[in-house]
Design goal:
heterodimer; A: alpha+beta; three-stranded antiparallel beta sheet; about 40% strand; B: alpha+beta; globular
């Protein structure tokens, strides 16, 4: 291995570290909660940190929502085209899934970093 | 001459990049400074979560012990070896027979008596008998106790037990239930313990009763769950060194003949308190009292509760009324985001 090879390797390693750290820095706005709206009103707030399956009532009937690894998707709903089930997972803040025939909208919001929830 | 791996320009270039990396790394650490250390426990019929912002397993274990100890002392359904607890005082101790009790339980009972006085009898730790009756129906999820049953429920008179020196004595079948005071009391003890060990930055959540310490920068952001639409946050408060506690009819209740029966029993009627309220949220720096005060204000209803609190400098309050209206004390808006 010539010195220029070694140099190249060192440069690549350093470059990767910089890239990785920059991404981590920029990607610090993970969504933590998803809000489910029906007719523009919040009907459910879902914590994306726990994997689970939820059911909400849409205009045409039940809508099944799955949370997996901080991502959320619709797995079952009643509509002609099933557009919102086909959309699959969303995971970033402000991403939405719209189930128009069901008047349901799912939106990822930051949990604004609540320190705790009182009830 | 030996050939150098890097020439001067390259070394300069590399060291700047390494500096940049260090800088980025430090910056990320500052942002990620939210790293928390938590302990989850289940004592006193509730999930308890304590969160601190520095690594200290020892102190978290001490808190576990603290809650466990009070869990055993206040347990109504079980006895523990070598512990004179509430179960023992209610079910094994004979009337007019005095017994020496642990200083910790003694002080807690004394606190209960004090709170009874302070709340004009509305928060009463001697209501075990009637609470049992309602719990029976709540578990069945139907029916309500008959007048006969309520009349013959036994004593709920807090003066039927006495505390003298380190001894407890009862003069009737009075039965203790510390549910209304113990959680707040022990949560404050936990907060004091953390502060004693030099940890001022903490969040304790005991079944929805939140107590926070001082934050180095800024305040803690606490979401308050909507009492009407569950799983939704309806108000956010920013606080430090305070407790936020909600009492309401929306948890632990059952419905029967189109009426809702919840778990907060009004000592005057021996029925679940029936006012214009769904819930009361109290924000105060009196961390143990917060629990008691929210129950008291819930039983009083909005009008009387507002009259009681408005001239006292002890707490800010948010009321949620059955008709959906939300009322505040004047200062409450200062905390609400």
């Amino acid at each position: 291995m010539s010195t220029s090879d070694i140099k190249l390797i060192i440069y690549i390693i350093i470059f990767s570290i910089v890239l990785y750290l920059s991404f981590k820095l920029l990607n610090n706005n993970d969504g933590e909660l998803a809000q489910v709206f029906y007719d523009n009103k919040v009907i459910k707030t879902i914590d994306l940190k726990t994997n689970d399956i939820y059911e909400v009532e849409g205009y045409n009937g039940k809508i099944k929502i799955e949370v997996k690894d901080k991502k959320i998707r619709v797995i079952e709903e009643t509509s002609k085209l099933h557009l919102c089930s086909y959309q699959g997972f969303i995971e970033n803040k402000n991403d939405v899934i719209i189930c128009l025939p069901n008047k349901v909208l799912i939106k990822i919001v930051g949990d604004d970093n609540y320190d705790s929830i009182a009830r | 001459m030996k050939k150098q791996l890097f020439n001067k320009t390259e070394i300069f270039f590399l060291s700047s990049i390494i500096l940049l990396i260090l800088f980025l790394y430090l910056f990320i650490n500052v942002i990620d400074n939210k790293k928390t250390y938590t302990i989850n426990m289940f004592y006193m019929d509730t999930y308890i979560n304590v969160k601190i912002y520095e690594e200290n397993k020892e102190v978290l274990d001490e808190l576990d012990k603290l809650f466990e100890e009070y869990h055993e002392l206040t347990d109504r359904y079980k006895s523990y070896e070598g512990v004179v607890n509430v179960y023992y005082l209610n079910n094994i101790l004979k009337q007019k027979e005095e017994i020496k009790i642990d200083k910790k339980l003694y002080n807690l009972l004394l606190y209960g008596k004090e709170m009874h006085k302070k709340t004009d009898g509305n928060v009463n730790i001697a209501m075990g008998n009637i609470i049992d009756v309602w719990k029976k129906y709540r578990d069945l999820k139907k029916g309500i106790p008959s007048d006969e049953e309520i009349k013959n429920v036994g004593s709920t008179n807090i003066n039927d037990f006495t505390l003298k020196e380190d001894k407890y004595e009862k003069s009737s079948n009075v039965s203790l239930d510390l549910g209304a005071v113990a959680k707040g009391y022990v949560t404050e003890l936990a907060a004091l313990h953390l502060e004693k060990r030099g940890i001022n930055n903490y969040v304790i959540n005991a079944g929805g009763n939140v107590v926070v310490g001082n934050k180095n920068k800024g305040t803690y952001k606490i979401g308050i769950e909507d009492p009407i639409k569950k799983d939704t946050i309806f108000k956010t408060v920013k606080i430090e060194n305070k407790a936020v506690v909600t009492s309401g009819s929306y948890e632990r209740y059952y419905e029967y003949n189109d009426k809702t029966y919840h778990h907060i029993i009004d000592p005057k009627t021996l029925f679940p308190s029936d006012t214009d309220l769904i819930s009361v949220t109290v924000i105060t720096d009196k961390k143990a009292y917060a629990d008691v005060l929210s129950t008291y204000l819930f039983i009083l209803g909005y009008e009387k509760g507002y009259e009681y609190i408005k001239n006292r400098d002890e707490a800010e309050v948010i009321w949620t009324l059955k008709d959906g209206k939300i009322k505040y004390t004047k200062g409450a808006k200062y905390y609400v985001d």
